[in-house]
């Protein structure tokens, strides 16, 4: 029965991507919903520039042209076709709109943010799409997430970067605020960029995330962070984040409730450092939940 339902869903995708979105299929892409449904566009009243960029991003996505028992999505970035295996029952194993926005930004801003030969780490890498694109753009990439997600993450990265990227990305476990000194010693940890896409979600344990950002970030490290605003907690987290980092909003996508930020570490005298909490949290792909 499960196999039948999966095949039926795949056939629906092949028959009509737009119709699939309107019917809210299991594999509907949240980003596509705002683009493909004219009624949503009309009601939202978003400006043309916003919709134009979203349309350009959506052009990088494609769906399987054949039936498969493994759910996957396809993307075109950095001159390559990228195929991402997903698991729809897990937050961290699905490609979210913020990841597409960050991939598009990295690809279209290579002059200002040149990743060639740069040391890059992604926190909450999930399916690995952002790490893959950064790698294809020439970076030394470390893709991190929770241990239960590393298998699929490693598979996607190996499949899409082997014999294609200048450097093969490293996949490494990272639970926010846990064993940071042991796994990422400050003396030998030196990242040029920290990438994060939609890591802030249902987050009672924000301090651990802030501790992780702070630990990985040197004075010259640039954080590129994309966030979808769903709840008031997102705004509170931004306020807390600004106590540690100089934050600049680079771009905004009102139709998606997504913002793209650039951040760098504040002068130590002006920073308000978080306290590490000692209790454990249940974590889902770097998104900490009670």
Description:
- This protein is α/β, with parallel strands linked by helices and 290 residues long.
- It has two domains: 1-69, no CATH class; 78-289, 3-Layer(aba) Sandwich (Rossmann fold).
- Helices cover 35% and strands 22% of the residues.
- Helix 10 (206-216) links the parallel strand 7 and strand 8.
- Helix 3 packs across helix 5 (48-58) and helix 7 (129-136) packs parallel to helix 8.
- The protein starts with a helix and ends with a strand.
- This is Protein-lysine methyltransferase METTL21E.
- One of its GO terms (molecular function) is methyltransferase activity.
- Keywords: Methyltransferase, S-adenosyl-L-methionine, Transferase.
Give descriptors for this structure.
290 residues; alpha/beta; 2 domains; 7-stranded mixed sheet; 3-stranded antiparallel sheet; globular; S-adenosyl-L-methionine; Protein-lysine methyltransferase METTL21E
